[in-house]
Amino acid sequence: MSIGEPFAARLSFGFVRVADRCQRRLAASDLLVTLSRKLHGEAAKHAEDAIRAGKPDVLTIDRTGAAANRRTSTGSLDAVPGKHLDEYPPAMFKEGGVSASVRPINPRDNMSAGACIGNACRGLPDGTQVRIRDRGLSMTSTTVNVEVAYGQIAIFTRALQQPFNDWTDRHVAQGFAWRPGSVSFRTIVEAGRHSVEINVTEHVGPISVGAVRAIEVPFEVPADGAIEVGSISDSVPLSLPAGVFLLRCEFLRPSHSGAERVRLVFGMKDASHFAIVRADESLNADGELLMTAPAALG
Fold first, then answer.
1. Torsion of CA 69, 70, 71, 73, to 10 degrees
2. Does CATH place domain 140-278 in 2.60.34.30?
């Protein structure tokens, strides 16, 4: 969550082991809810499809407008035998109603997903922003935006009290600083908004077309699956399957709009190692890699 960003609940669809259940985690400024596609199948898939089609993933709780939103989105539609009319965004959010996507789905999926969202939002006042993360099954991908600062993007386990690593000249030259549970990658530009694509798959596969830098390191996701991707003032919580992965960080050529792009690939079945797979002119891949770094302390 960005410093200064309004309190936001976060919902994520999938990106979890199929045995995972609806989880609620409440801290001072963060609420994480995970809806598994396995448990809430057609409802989670509808949300994913709607977001990919352009519906918002940041929603605002508005219980007082729920009835009116529901009438607007479904009131003129015929009932479908054996189905529920599912809305995304849901009617309890301000963004629902006239612009909502409506799809007939399995009643169990609709009721279960609605109950899980209801539990997550219980006690939160109207006006609270909810961020919905649309992720499919455990082999999937999602994209988040991160405001990079101080020339680095980091992946770390959420339990770390001091997640960011110290840098030496050797770390800067090789493009990363690593310790168990945390890795920081040197970004190509020092600061600004980066679009970060995150993939979980069996193997990291070939380097992406358009990658100008690619680095691979081991990364262990803890038993609770809780990690974060971010930079000094901005991070996004994620839930991944527990285990040891090969993590590849690719820095891609900017998009046509000029946006900086990063691709993170977590390979479940690849052997863990450290490697500079592709170096741009600002990296020095000569010599042995420095494969440890302390936490950055004052």
1. 80
2. yes
Residue intervals of the chain classified under CATH 2.60.34.30 are 140-278
Task: Say if CB 216 and CB 275 are below 8 A apart.
Answer: yes
Half-sphere exposure of 215 (CA within 13 A, CB side): 27
Tens of pLDDT along 72-117?
Answer: 999 999 999 999 999 999 999 999 999 999 999 999 999 988 887 8
List pLDDT tens digits, range 55-75. Answer: 887 788 999 999 999 999 999
At 294, the amino acid letter reads P
Mean predicted confidence (pLDDT) in 195-199: 91
* Segments in 6-139 forming alpha helices (H): 41-52, 66-74, 107-121
The per-residue pLDDT for 191 is 95
Measured between alpha carbons, how far is 298 from 4 in angstroms, rounded to an integer?
Answer: 24
The answer to pTM > 0.70 is: no
